[in-house]
């Protein structure tokens, strides 16, 4: 079994090298090569889990946070879930400082989330709005689009601060 997977890996690696050398010559590619290249082109979207870096999209003073723990679910956090995070980058003179442990609500997630009407909501980045222990936002403004699905998770205050609802 191990030799079979090793030989497949060898064939994929060999076809990749052959594709690099023959890409300028315009030769047809093998099926293995096209599947491997399409696999590389796809970005795997996963849950927001421990050590995931997230962008902060409010004016609380933090720029980037790292997830310490997702407060719901074993796999990780999704759109609208609350996380505990550590501030990695902060603006000088902001409400939160570098190294501070804060709570946040995920407002944009790269992992697709299915809606009840059959559509999917997916964003390009992972973003969070920082909240206090009571669930109220620390900042007074929220930048960028915020999905309408946050209303189901009882984050109406974040929706009212947002400039644009997606």
TrEMBL record:
One Gene Ontology biological process: translation
InterPro entries per record: Ribosomal_uL14, Ribosomal_uL14_bac-type, Ribosomal_uL14_CS, Ribosomal_uL14_sf
SUPFAM superfamilies: Ribosomal protein L14 (SSF50193)
GO cellular component: mitochondrial large ribosomal subunit
Keyword annotations of the record: Ribonucleoprotein, Ribosomal protein, RNA-binding, rRNA-binding
GO molecular function terms noted in the UniProt entry: large ribosomal subunit rRNA binding; structural constituent of ribosome
Classification via HAMAP family: Ribosomal_uL14
Entry similarity comment: Belongs to the universal ribosomal protein uL14 family.
PANTHER family with a match to the protein in the record: 50S/60S RIBOSOMAL PROTEIN L14/L23, LARGE RIBOSOMAL SUBUNIT PROTEIN UL14M
Protein name as catalogued: Mitochondrial ribosomal protein L14
Organism in which the protein naturally occurs: Deinandra increscens subsp. villosa
């Amino acid at each position: 079994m191990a030799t079979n997977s090793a030989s497949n890996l060898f064939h994929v690696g060999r076809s990749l090298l052959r594709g690099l050398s023959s890409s300028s010559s315009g030769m047809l590619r093998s099926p293995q090569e096209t599947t491997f290249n399409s696999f590389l082109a796809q970005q795997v979207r996963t849950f927001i889990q421990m050590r995931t870096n997230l962008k902060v999209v409010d004016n609380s003073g933090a720029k980037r946070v790292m997830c310490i723990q997702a407060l719901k679910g074993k796999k990780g956090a999704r759109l609208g879930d609350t996380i505990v995070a550590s501030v990695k980058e902060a603006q000088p003179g902001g409400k939160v400082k570098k190294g501070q442990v804060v709570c946040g609500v995920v407002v944009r997630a790269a992992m697709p989330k299915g809606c009840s009407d059959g559509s999917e909501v997916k964003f390009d980045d992972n973003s969070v709005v920082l909240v206090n222990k009571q669930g109220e936002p620390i900042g007074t403004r929220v930048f960028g689009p915020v999905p309408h699905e946050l209303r189901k998770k009882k984050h109406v205050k974040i929706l009212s601060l947002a400039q644009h609802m997606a």
